[in-house]
Amino acid sequence: MFTNRTRLIQHNPIQFNYGIAVTDIDDDGEFELVVAGFRHPNLVLKWNGSGFINIADPVIADDQRQAIGLAACDIDGDGMEEIYILNTDTFAGQKRVADRLFDRADGEWTDLFSLPVNQRIANLTAGRSVAALDRLGTGRYGFFVANYGGPLRLYELDDDGRLNDVAPLARLDQVTGGRSVLALPLISTGMDIFAGNEGGPNFLFRNNGDGTYMNVADMLNIGDDLQNARGVAVLDANQDGLPDIVCGNWEGPHRLFIQSFDGTFTDLATPEIAAPSRVRTVIAADFDNDGYEEIFFNNIGQPNRLFGFREGRWVPMSIGDAIEPFGFGTGAAVGDFDGDGRLELIISHGETGMQPLTLYHTPNNHNHWLRVIPYTAQGAPARGAVVTLRMEGRLLQRYIDAGSGYLCQMEPVAHFGLGESTEIERVEVRWLDGEMHIIENPEPDQVLKIKHPMSEKIF
Fold this sequence. Notes:
The protein is mainly β. It is 3% helix and 42% strand. It is globular and about 55 Å long. The two termini are 34 Å apart.
């Protein structure tokens, strides 16, 4: 499946790297990769037409801290995404250095946690993952932080420009061994949260519609309390129009939680998927543009794995160069950075040894594709929005990524492989506030940028 193209990363130091997030860091309409450097500089990799160059501002590089998890979203409603970088200097509980929350104004980056008005609520608990959360569907996001040995956090910005931890107000401030986070309309029309945990049951917080949440994981059979969650991803695994969850468990059986129409989940992982491994990031994406997503398991110190949906069943696939049997994989992300309509896979390494990033691509098979980018009314990527494509009697759904499980965040794009088909019946975008937009019979092999019905921004 994958061919090694790491040579295209023109600045690729051998260092400890962890999470990866995809965002438009320089507001030029294209997405970049932000890589967490642990005791080394954070990187910002930008495609310049012939390769990836590092454009990290010294403030973002922040080489004196120990970054592991990160995410981006628009918390102040200015149409640009802020970046949350989770730092940790201990395995669990209280840590010495706080996280960063970088905001860009007039070309300058400021850590909002460093401002005197915000220092009292800076996160001083060891965390693992971060996700964007728009709990009210307004287009103004907060950062949900999965902490380990301390309360979960939800940072939102008030109208006076002050950060507040609203997790207690939202009934999210539980203490657990937090590891991974997904945020999307999973079991309600609002943004729900799946939090994968270690040393205790997973959480599934249902959005009550009033800004508060209720943990219904045990009720819906997704607690899995004897396992230790790591990477997690969402996809429609059985083609029934409902979002399902693939959850990697550390050295335990991996799960493929299939959602029923009554809202409950059943683990239907095949023996090949369930086989235990030292899993980190899990990704669901259509790498070969055949119209069906693949499932990628990034393992640390063990061969990576790839599964495809073939003839109604998930089966192992040849992974090619991305097998990395001796790779110290800590994070991974996908995106189409070179604009050829095919997804690139980038893997970070660290924890047990310093290794450079690796980059993989799939051979051009001439399959068709469509990419859809919805934006909020404020003009930022609409993380959490749902995009549905209908073609040839099939319904394909993609969920604009807000946080992809363990440490990472994917590109905020609905990427559809179409196989050999060129006939698309319609594309439907549904935002978190219930607004919808329909495109009839779009042409394939293009990127559609869809503004919110209430937006005045022009693309």
